[in-house]
Specification:
The complex is a heterodimer. By secondary structure, chain A is an alpha+beta fold. Chain A has one domain: Roll (Ubiquitin-like (UB roll)). Helix content of chain A is 27%, strand content 25%. Chain A has three helices and five strands. Chain A has a five-stranded mixed beta sheet with strand order 2-1-5-3-4. In chain A, strand 3 and strand 4 form a beta hairpin. The longest helix of chain A has 11 residues, at 30-40. By secondary structure, chain B is an alpha+beta fold. Chain B has a single domain (2-144), classed as Aldehyde Oxidoreductase, domain 3 (Alpha-Beta Complex). Helices cover 34% and strands 36% of the residues of chain B. Chain B has four helices and nine strands. Chain B has helices spanning 12-20, 56-71, 102-119, 139-146; strands at residues 3-6, 28-35, 39-40, 43-52, 77-82, 84-87, 91-99, 122-128, 131-134. The longest helix of chain B is centred in the last third of the chain and has 18 residues, at 102-119. The chains are: A alpha+beta, B alpha+beta. The A-B interface holds A 5, 7-9, 12, 52, 56, 59-61, 75, 77-83 and B 34, 50-53, 55-56, 59-60, 81, 92-93, 113, 116-125, 134-137.
């Protein structure tokens, strides 16, 4: 399984904080995870097309080509605004 | 512990005292405190709500501090970032750095703060007269942080 978590404005837009996906070839990169999420939730398409969305795997910022495997935690979130 | 993510407020004098205690080797102590201000982009702000990504926040701050230590000769470092609901005027963030001399202390403190703003997973939601609004990241913050790359 792959755990997917969402934060801040993104979590509110999706009305979803967390979900799980099976780990297989349709979820073996961040880009594919996004694609599958949109296939499963077509209403999320515009939100995930937002180029400024950031992603992390196991707490490390990564880009769309980064591999994902079973047991990983994938996060999607808006650009950060701390300080 | 040099990094704290917490709801509780912090006391500036206590934090400075901790940086200075038994630390005769360092002649410079530099601190920054960020607070909730009353206006942003023309709208009256009454408060903030801060969210973070537990686990990743601490990890990213640790990496920022490691980078600072690798680049400047610094002694003690302290970063506190509050989360949750904060009212107008409240303290949000503290960065404190000690060093033998002032140049490295000033540079490292500014670097840590600049990188925190673009790499550490915190998000601010502003509470205004017109309702709640998540803040957008500023391109100017990204540009400011990128200046350290040269």
């Amino acid at each position: 399984m792959i755990k997917v978590v969402f934060f801040a404005a993104l979590r509110e837009q999706l009305n979803c904080a967390e979900l799980s996906l099976s780990a297989d070839e349709s979820t073996d990169t961040i880009a594919k995870v996004k694609q599958l999420l949109v296939e499963q939730h077509p209403q999320w398409q515009d939100t995930f097309n937002n180029a400024s969305l950031l992603s992390a795997v196991n707490h490390e910022m990564v880009d769309g080509s980064h591999p994902v495997k079973s047991g990983d935690e994938v996060a999607f979130f808006p650009p950060v605004t701390g300080g | 512990m040099s990094i704290s993510i917490q709801t509780q407020d912090f006391n500036l004098a206590d934090e400075v005292a901790a940086l200075e205690q038994d630390n005769a080797a360092d002649g410079a102590v530099v601190t920054f405190t960020g607070r909730v201000r009353n206006q942003n982009l023309g709208l009256e702000v009454s408060g903030l709500y801060l969210e973070h990504y537990p686990g990743m926040t601490e990890k990213s701050l640790e990496k920022i501090l490691e980078t600072a230590r690798g680049r400047w000769d610094i002694g003690r470092v302290r970063v506190i970032h509050r989360i949750g609901q904060l009212d107008l005027g409240e303290q949000i963030v503290f960065v404190g750095v000690t060093s033998k001399h002032r140049r490295d202390a000033f540079a490292a403190a500014e670097f840590i703060m600049d990188y925190l703003k673009i790499q550490a997973p915190f998000w601010k939601k502003e509470l205004t007269e017109q309702g709640e609004k998540w803040l957008d990241a500023r391109q100017s913050d990204t540009a400011k942080a990128q200046q350290w790359d040269r």
